[in-house]
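I'm stuck. Protein, please.
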Amino acid sequence: MIELEHVVKKFGDLVAVNDVSLRIGRGEFFALLGPNAAGKTTTLKILAGLLKPTSGTARVCGFDVQAEPLEAKRRMAFVPDFPFMYEKLTPWEFLRFTGQLFLMPEDHIQARAQELVRRFNLEPYVSKPIESLSHGTRQRVVIVSALLHDPEVFIIDEPLVGLDPQHARIVKDTLKERAAAGMTVLMSTHELSVAEELADRIGIINHGRLIAVGTPDELRSRAGATGPLEAIFLALTARRHGPDEANT
C-alpha cells in the first residue's frame, strides 16, 4: 500500500532523505522513529505529495504520488505535526468541507461525522469556532476529519501531541482498530513507548538513512540488546551505517 523506492530529497547541500526504500503492506501499522532532523517528517511529506523527491519514487495504493497525485491522495489521509485549519469555521463546518473535498455524499458525511464526533468526545465543541479550541481539541478535530472518508492509507506525524491520556487512548484504539480492518497506518513519533505498543513493525531513520526495520524483537536482536525500545533505539542510532544495512 505504501512504497518508497530509492527516495532522495535534497535541500541545497543538505541531504534530508538519503536513498530510502520501504514497503508497508495493507493493514500494517508501521512506526517511523528517529532523532530530530533525521528525515521523518520529510519522508512523510513526500508520501503525502507535499514535497517532490529529488530522485526516486513514492507510491500509495499503487499510484505514483507525483505522476498520479489525485488517485493517490483520494485514497490517503495525512495529519501533519502542525496541521492547518480554517479557524473561523466550526469543527462541524470543517468536517463537512473535508467530506465535500473527497466528494462524499451529504448523508454519508453526516453519518460518519456524527459517529466520529461521538467517539472522540467532540459534541460540546462542534458549534464553536475552531480558533477558540484548545490544541488538544483541535488535534482531535483534525484526526476525525482525516478519518472521515475511510482512507486506505493513514499517515500521521506525532499523533498524540497535546492530547490528554483519555483522548490519546481513543486515538490509539481507533488507529489499531482501523489497521485491523485493513487500513495501512504510517506513524512518525518520538514516543518510543507508543511505537512499541502499537506498531507491527518499526523503522529507524538517522541522518536521512533508514538504518533498521523490523518488529521490536527483531530490532532487539539486531542491536544485541534487551529491554525497552529506548535502549535499542539509542544503540542503533549511535552507530554508523552503510547505505544497504536496513532490511526493508
The CA atoms of residues 126 and 174 lie 20 Å apart. Residues 82-150 form one domain. The mean pLDDT is 92.
